[in-house]
């Protein structure tokens, strides 16, 4: 059988469509599986006015249920006279059967009572009405509504249900909305229609100018834009997120080219592009060099172009661009630095004070970073960048909430026009990088240090006053801040101690009197938070989870050193010699793990191999310390591998757990000394055998 279910409604917000289809599909899959109903696949389709499920090769009948539920042992269920006990009666009652129907089942552990349940599968068509009805009632959205006198909560008012199993209607009703075989086409270029089969639905929905396949609609938009909306030397800027949104705003796409007054191009093109993309859902048109042209593409929900639609959109965009130009010109009337004083009235967080206070703390962290990274020659430009980095937040362009996506960019533009210099301008823009996963990274030290100082103050400050992420709640984006810090350190190969950075940030919080929690606790929590982010980043880089854990559990303080250790180990574990040594390392670690390090007394050695291992361990200790001091991690591993044969002989010839307590303790101390050498670079005990 084949099942088709369409929920028809008023226009659904574009951001709800894909998630609603995903939730509907997952819920239906679970219901069919729980109901023992087989199917091949479920396809989903959707437009702003409909959510569609298409189930292929649906079973006609449920699978029969034949279960044998085990109960207590026979000796517990029956007394010595063979009479059923309270335990036996209780089990029978819990299974809904008479005690006489209990079975005795022999198992390897003895005889037990059991209850057999057999349920013959029902016809699936009998079950579908309740299944489909529950799909509607259980579907949830970020925001739902009720309408008219109905109690049904949905994102938008439901208008109709089309529900068909092959050529038959699946009958159900929800608050007066009755399922049937009728659907509706495009709101303006289609009509209501009736179908007698599922195949007929797919034919008629297209005839009524609705493209229900989301991917087909998306490709249609791209192809129509390429074919009809550009001249030679032009390109349409199609951002993937905007394309997804526009795809989910229309049922049949029709791109139309509009234009605007070229006088608006005096405003930075990023501002104009934001106006078009974010506010109007238009696609900007650029020349071959990426320069904005006074043209755009609007995707109409219709089957043909319209001069009236084009003019209407041009009029709306002109008003938007006029606002942008006004804000921009007003902002340029005063130096960007004048805005910094205004930040004293903008609260960052109630316990951490204003953004101005945040700048002051960030400046102190920046001074530490300047010294730590040895870039005192750029100190003035770095500190000026930190001072001005947030100044555009109170500009007309950003403060009016119209162009919040341009924070940083507008500050950079204003700074350059105010004569602040290219380094400061670039630093203001780059201190926000990376803004999201895969975003570009800061390239110059001004943006690098300003970004690190800002994020560090946010992260440590929030932990310091008890604002800590939990589950999906992370109002100050602390996970993103920590990821940004680690990614910038990696990208710029900064030799920094995370512990020292957090300590410095804690110093600034204490000096300002805003640290609300125990300093040592905050330090430990933030460092663990960083460690989790390092783990995520390293595993995303396709390094083995066990190797990443082995390194970070040993020391995660210096991100660059940790990454180099991971890279070296990733290659070294492939070495055959290391592969044979790994079980020995684990054996040494397991035997000595609960032993407290003690003094090794050579006078207690009983066999020559003990002294050989002792001398090797002393020599190895010096070599591995030297290797680690020089950050030569390959040499460290090579030196450890050289002990493979002697450690093997030791275990073959020595009984560690000797009856003489002094000898046993001495041998355990010797192995503990060796085990400690195995975890100086990474906890090699955690590495899995390949």
How would you describe the overall organization of this protein?
The structure is a single chain. This protein is α+β, with helices and mostly antiparallel strands and 690 residues long. It folds into 5 domains: 3-61 and 123-207; 69-117, no CATH class; 215-331, no CATH class; 338-542, Hypothetical protein af1432 (Orthogonal Bundle), CATH 1.10.3210; 568-686, Isoleucyl-tRNA Synthetase, Domain 1 (Orthogonal Bundle), CATH 1.10.730. The protein contains 26 helices and 18 strands. The strands form 5 sheets. Strands 1, 2, 3, 7, 8, 9 and 10 form a 7-stranded mixed sheet that branches. A 4-stranded antiparallel sheet has the order 13-15-16-14, sandwiched between helices. Helix 15 packs parallel to helix 16 (445-464), helix 18 runs antiparallel to helix 19 (519-540) and helix 23 (608-629) packs antiparallel against helix 25. The longest helix is centred in the middle third of the chain and has 25 residues, at 307-331.
